[in-house]
Specification:
Its EC number is 3.6.3.34. The protein has one domain (2-255): 3-Layer(aba) Sandwich (Rossmann fold). A hairpin with a 2-residue loop joins strand 9 and strand 10. The model has no long low-confidence stretch (mean pLDDT 92). The longest helix has 18 residues, at 170-187. The protein is α/β, with parallel strands linked by helices. It has a 6-stranded mixed beta sheet with strand order 6-7-8-3-9-10, sandwiched between helices. The chain has helices at residues 40-47, 70-76, 91-96, 112-124, 140-153, 170-187, 198-204, 222-225, 228-235, and strands spanning 2-11, 14-24, 29-33, 55-60, 63-64, 77-80, 158-162, 190-194, 207-212, 215-220, 240-244, 251-255.
Length: 258
């Protein structure tokens, strides 16, 4: 589905990403992890065509993403920003903006298909009862769900998320994670997400890329990648231990009380 080939990126004189290569399989949940300042957000912006790489190539279905016209790419790939912005639209109106890539040239009102897509997205995200509320009056967790609904309204093949769980309580984290799992299994949605919590990565990711200082330090299944040696090397954490959960053998990371 997505191929990243020898991508690098430079801000001014600083090399932020160096020789990044990986493949995201169709219908998989691919996570990007690493310490602050590792280049994670820059990488997902490049994959989502918000930034051009300084070198290398990103392909969607074997085609350079920059060869797509803007409308075609927006239909195929939806991106949720790291910090959802405030606006003064009602939730339903804002979710409808996710349908803009599907609008015809002189379309100024929603079609029946647009309404159905918005209704479905609101329902999937549990927002039916909030559809007429204003965006600036809802909580941060609800706002994150609204942005997810907006992305889903466009019926994308790929969903890209930059730290979708940041600043959310455990209830809203659970809602979003299990919804993403459902969308992946039920509809074959391909998901690329930046996540900080390695225990969540362990449970939900099919594969994980670990970055440090703009370079790939590990790539593979969480069970192959997440271990004490890697955490010490990448994060510099010295009192962290990792064990295999008995119910599924997934790695579990915790800070030892020494």
């Amino acid at each position: 589905m997505i191929e990243v080939e020898s991508v690098c990126f430079t801000y001014g004189n600083k090399r932020v990403l160096e020789n990044i290569s990986f493949i995201v399989e169709n219908g998989s949940f691919f996570c990007i992890a690493g310490p602050n300042g590792a280049g994670k957000s820059t990488l997902v912006k490049i994959v989502g065509r918000a930034l051009r790489p300084s070198c290398g190539l990103v392909k969607l279905k074997s085609k350079d993403i920059w060869s797509f016209d803007a409308k075609s790419f927006a239909k195929a790939v939806a991106m949720i920003p790291q910090s959802p912005f405030y606006n003064f639209l009602r939730i339903r109106e804002f979710v409808l903006t996710g349908r803009i890539p599907h609008f015809s040239v002189f379309q100024f009102r929603q079609t029946k298909k647009d309404k159905e897509a918005v209704d479905t997205a609101l329902s999937l995200c549990g927002l039916d009862g909030l559809a007429d509320e204003f965006m600036h009056k809802i909580s941060g967790g609800e706002r994150q769900l609204v942005f997810l609904a907006r992305a889903l309204a466009s019926n994308p093949e790929v969903l890209i998320m930059d730290e979708p769980l940041s600043n959310l309580d455990i209830n809203n984290q659970e809602k979003i994670l299990y919804l993403l799992k459902y969308l992946k299994v039920k509809f074959g949605l391909t998901i690329v997400g930046v996540l900080h919590d390695l225990n969540i990565v362990s449970e939900f990711a099919d594969r994980v890329l670990v970055l440090k200082d703009g370079q790939v330090k590990a790539l593979g299944k969480p069970s192959e990648v997440i271990n004490g040696e890697l955490i010490n090397k990448v994060y510099g954490a010295k009192n962290v231990e990792v064990f295999k959960k008995p119910q599924n053998s997934n790695p579990f990371v915790y800070i030892a009380n020494i």
